[in-house]
Amino acid sequence: MFKREVYINRRAKLKKLVKDGIILILGNNESPMNYPANGYHFRQDSDFLYFFGHDHAGMAGVIDVDSGDEFLFADDVSMDDIIWMGPQPSVKSLASEVGIEKTAPFGDLANLLVKATDSGRNVHILPQYRHDNMIYLNQVLGIPFDKMKDAVSVELIKAIVALRSIKDEYEIAEIDKACDIGYIMHTEAMKKAAPGVIEREVAGLMEGISLSRGGVPSFPIILSVNGQTLHNHYHGNVMKEGDLMLADAGCETTLHYASDNTRTSPVSGKFTAKQREVYEIVMNANNHAMSLIKPGITYREVHLAVAKVLASGLTELGIMKGNPDDAVREGAHALFQPHGLGHMMGLDVHDMEGLGENYVGYDDKIKRASQFGLSGLRLGRELKPGFVLTNEPGCYFIPELIDSWKSDKKFMDFINYEKLESYRDFGGIRLEDDILVTPDGNRLLGSKRIPITPEEVEDCMRS
Ligand code: GLY
């Protein structure tokens, strides 16, 4: 955990941003996998971690904005718990580690909430993603399940997004650590890839590195020779000569800060000329984004500038045609990159996405677009120092999408469908780095950039 002042200060700032009422932040509970005592890996709620620090199941934090009181609700362990789990610190001592004096058994939380609502006070709740917490709120506050989404406090969401968007020095140090573990995961994956290896052998190696150095991967590992499927979690293919292996993976540190990187490597150890041509377009797109990221620019502007690099490169290869600027304005390039350039990253790999993507990535000045491709951009707003984000351009040849667009005669002025036929089985390339926005520009997170030039990748695979 961070030192107690960090949590005290975060809650103090939150109290200033929320006008009145009671803020409720529910932690997570154990979640059974196939029978009650066999649980999934426990993951604490990220807002609870941010304000209350503790990584234990069955807790809730309350901040009374009007009185200034702060409470930690949780049960002390029983003798039975001690027998199975070993001795555990008391709730009082856990609370004191994060600067909280008032504690009570979890069961008392309901009384506090009911009393508050009965006396007409505002109880601020967040969007819920765990069903047990939804059931709790339904039982205690009487919120119907189909109204749970409307019962959330937009004031609280906006306040939390404002705070969590700007990473402090402690958080940045954690994310650097996560990226350093990500470096090992990706370079070991490159070394392991070879014809005859099954994808799960590489994915399992990456997962093991993550587990042994911190925590679980920050999201289920995406690793496939079919990289044209953006989130491909099937790891059963035997890799063969001529395949490209797309590996999109990151880890969590012990404090749950994430990394998220993607590299694409030739299974044979050497890119073919055709693979290299497309690879270099994506690499140029990634580098161009990095040259632009700085405070004041919107990430939508960066996304669109990167799209132009992609469209220009594909025009040079003869896959696209016409004016790349016009193609991007119309959205024709989205056939090849149907997703956005990146997202915020922090305690969640898609940071704060549980609070609502548009609250995190957009604001009053810039609204999400509806155009195919651009609508997938999770972060569009103006960048500020302290933001941590991913830069992940890609180029994919998705046969089903190509066929659909071709039969609909979409963008005939910008796409050379005849030439495209010879790329149907190409797969996909994505190159993703994690970036901190600094006062005068940006810096790559982690102490070393994961090999990215074709030469660096091939050297790493040989080593
Ligand atoms: N890197 C996986 C994702 O952004 O969803």
* % residues in beta strands: 5-15%
Q: What shape does the CA trace take?
A: globular
CATH architectural grouping of the largest domain: Alpha-Beta Complex
Mean pLDDT: 97
CATH topology of the largest domain: Creatine Amidinohydrolase
Q: Could you name the CATH homologous superfamily of the largest domain?
A: Creatinase/methionine aminopeptidase superfamily
Number of strands: 15
In DSSP terms (H or I, runs of 4 or more residues), the helix count works out at 16
**Helix proportion of residues, in percent?**
25-40%
Query: Low-confidence parts, pLDDT < 50 over ≥5 residues?
Result: none
Reported for the largest beta sheet, the result is: 5 strands, mixed
Quick structural gist:
This protein is 39% helix and 13% strand. The protein has helices at residues 4-17, 46-52, 79-85, 91-97, 108-118, 131-141, 154-165, 169-192, 199-213, 273-292, 299-316, 324-330, 357-361, 399-407, 417-420, 454-462; strands at 22-26, 32-35, 38-39, 60-64, 70-73, 102-104, 123-124, 222-224, 244-249, 261-266, 388-391, 394-396, 428-430, 433-438, 441-444.
Walkthrough of the structure:
The chain is of the alpha+beta class. About 40% of the residues lie in helices and about 15% in strands. It has helices spanning about 5-15, 45-50, 80-85, 90-95, 110-120, 130-140, 155-165, 170-190, 200-215, 275-290, 300-315, 325-330, 355-360, 400-405, 415-420, 455-460; strands at about 20-25, 30-35, 40, 60-65, 70-75, 100-105, 125, 220-225, 245-250, 260-265, 390, 395, 430, 435-440, 440-445. A five-stranded mixed sheet has the order 6-5-4-1-7. Strands 8-9-10 form a three-stranded antiparallel sheet. A hairpin with a 2-residue loop joins strand 2 (about 30-35) and strand 3 (about 40). Helix 8 crosses helix 16 (about 455-460). The structure holds glycine. Glycine binds next to loops.
